[in-house]
Amino acid sequence: MSGDRHDMSEAEWAILHSVLPHKHQGPERVHDRRVMNGIFFVLRTGTPWRDLPERYGPYTTCYDRDNRWSKNGIWASIMKELQRLAGDDGGSDDGSAGSVRLRMVDSSSVRVHRHGAGAGRDGGPPRIGSSRGGRTTKVHLGIDGNAVVKTVFLTPAQAADCAQAEALLADLGKDETVIADKAYDTDAIPDLIETAGATAVIPSKSNRKSPRSLDRET
Q1: What is the Cα–Cα distance from 129 to 148, expressed in whole angstroms?
Q2: pLDDT tens digits for 3-36?
Q3: Long-range CB contact pairs, 88-92, < 8 A, 24+
């Protein structure tokens, strides 16, 4: 294949190919690598599907697969399998032997493309909201010390970070250290973390009357 900088390397393709679904109805899929590179090209560059370079084949093939796999849960299954493989690499939870097990949570707002701002909800929960940046979606992410994604989900932009903490930390284990910013400084979140047997490292907001002690060396 063409060596475009957006395309997967041989090592990346070997990993992804190992987790692709191989049992499916209908004719056998062809050009898996080309199609996947086409999908990733659009996701990485924001290029409209119709402007997908010809080297990736018909744009309709890439679009249809991405859309179908999003709706039937295949992308979610692939992500879970990649997370499992990342967790089986034998490394410690934060990339260095003998150190604390880390869990970091945060969110980021992504502006919705004007072509998607009025898209239908297909019966699902709304994930587009209004913020100072316009029509945006908020991505909530929880990762461990190896930058392995543990939890990820979307909400409308106006959703408060602290309201998503319980879902982000649903699989929190004992002896983990949770690092978060001031957006997660509530009375309930440290209690939730401590109940799980973990340690909270969350700075206090400036308006907190009794700031919590914070171990910045942990």
Answers
A1: 28
A2: 578 899 999 999 999 999 877 666 677 799 999 9
A3: 89/146, 91/146, 92/145, 92/146
Distances in Å between the Cα of 212 and the Cα atoms of 62, 177, 179, 196 are 51, 16, 14, 19
Q: What is the pLDDT of residue 99?
A: 59
Tokens standing for 218? 């942990």
Tell me which residue of 85, 117, 94, 71 sits closest to 12, measured CA to CA: 85
At 140, list the tokens. 């909530």
Q: What angle do CA 43, 46, 50 make, to 5 degrees?
A: 95
Phi, psi angles (nearest 5°) of residue 207: -95, 5
Contacts of 12 (CB under 8 A, 6+ apart): none
